[in-house]
């Protein structure tokens, strides 16, 4: 709990994956990928209950083996490739309606720490905000990005005549890293998104912001975690 308000954490982990087959069950750093998120959630000072949302029996069994609750099976129509990511979260808080806060912890962020989760929750609560999400500084700046026009000439993605020529002059740009999403449950039901003009940003360092989407990402995470990169 935080400020006498209850906190539900949801780990969305469907069986299908467009980029990496059975991604959430792949062994990374000696454990199934989803195990890293479960262990971090269990270390949180504020999370009262962690549940997994999945339609896949193998994922449900693996999550339970590492101490995560699996009180329901996600409906198949909420586990398709084109299902908006918010829908499984809204489904979970409708099944478990007695919580004040919800935290989404995707299993594809195995390098986040419990302190990241708790600081993001604290940020939201201390600012009386409705939502907060984790971000990291973008390594590539859109002010230096271009598209090719129909005539073959380069066109800046950001239409600005004064493009900085020195990296030090570029404005800071932040990127969603997918690690932590926090919101008030009642507010989220209305907004149907963690990202609105009311959302705060919690900054995480680049070294903890790996979001696994490819085989290369998996190999990188495996190498880092095997060397203690989660500590």
| Overall mean pLDDT | 92
Largest sheet: 6 strands, mixed
Structural class, from helix and strand content? Answer: alpha/beta
Shape descriptor reads: globular
Q: In terms of per-residue confidence, which ranges show pLDDT below 50 for 5 or more consecutive residues?
A: none
Strand content: 15-25%
H/E element order = EEEHEHHEHEEEEHEH
Helix coverage percent: 25-40%
Estimated radius of gyration: 19 Å
The count of β-strands is 10
How many helices? The count is 6
Oligomeric state: single chain
Keywords:
231 residues, alpha/beta, 6-stranded mixed sheet, two-stranded antiparallel ribbon, 27% helix
Describe it:
The longest helix has 13 residues. 27% of the residues lie in helices and 21% in strands. By secondary structure, the protein is an alpha/beta fold.
